[in-house]
Amino acid sequence: MALLTPEDLENLSMQLEENDEIARRVTGLDIRGICEALYGTKPGSEKVGIIPITAGNGVIGNFTSSLLFIAQYFGFEGFITEHPDVTGYYEAVSQGADIIMMADDHIFTAHNLRNEKIVSNHVATGVIYADIASRFREASSKDILVIGLGRVGYAGACHLVNKGFNVYACDPNKEFLQKAVDELNIKPYCSDDRKKFSMVFEATPNADTISEGMIEERCLVSTPGIPCGLPPEVGKKYRVDLVMEPLVIGVASMLYSVIQNQ
Ligand code: PYL
Ligand code: MG
After folding, report:
1. What's the CA-to-centroid distance between 198 and ligand 1, angstroms?
2. What is the mean pLDDT of each run of 10 residues along the chain (262 residues)?
3. Which of 179, 213, 223, 258 is the most exposed, having the fewest neighbouring CB atoms within 10 Å of its CB?
């Protein structure tokens, strides 16, 4: 999995504002509204204990401070522990954290100690970006393209199948594709199919995975990016809206998914 860099996390609040405005325009809901609609939950100032983790490549600059900003923005009470790792975990629980958030190089998790709900960033990110794509108000049909069937893409594809969309998907890894066909009954898509989509959810670690043969003249692309799958020239040539930012939307989805339903 590609690791975030401190540079990815600069000016998060500006990226959030921009994506909130785009989401509102193309779906009718801002990120808060999408989270509430997706999970049926509303934050009630739950206390989020954020623990720096030194495993693997170690602490990433701006990461825990970004989580604190995101938790507070969406109405949670947050704090970053003074110590990392096990000492930090003990500190967070001792200080009354309701929800624990921490990440090593493989899993970034939110765990609600009160209701035992637990989620990974992969699943929460796949579900919300797929959901955003599926809410495109100018969609021409219920056909939706999923590019990438790894842990993020598969979770998003599963969510879209459950919502009743006609899910087409592609992944260079034939095993990933076959697993999704067998388990989710998605339709395999290859670019020479000539079929075009007005809704695209992209979840790959590569750039420029979206070609102009895949998209209709008016299209919504929703992706956690890093890097962006939409080539700039394609985005300019067609009327494409892009919802993409590196961390906030996925973390909001994590937090809303582990709090109590109203
Ligand atoms: C959650 C991000 C989204 C994309 N890649 C994931 C990533 O970079 N994971 C690693 C996070 C490591 C955090 C580090 C710290 O600062 O506590 N252990
Ligand atoms: Mg990507």
Report:
1. 32
2. 91 96 98 97 96 98 98 97 98 98 98 98 98 97 98 98 98 96 96 90 96 95 93 93 97 97 70
3. 213
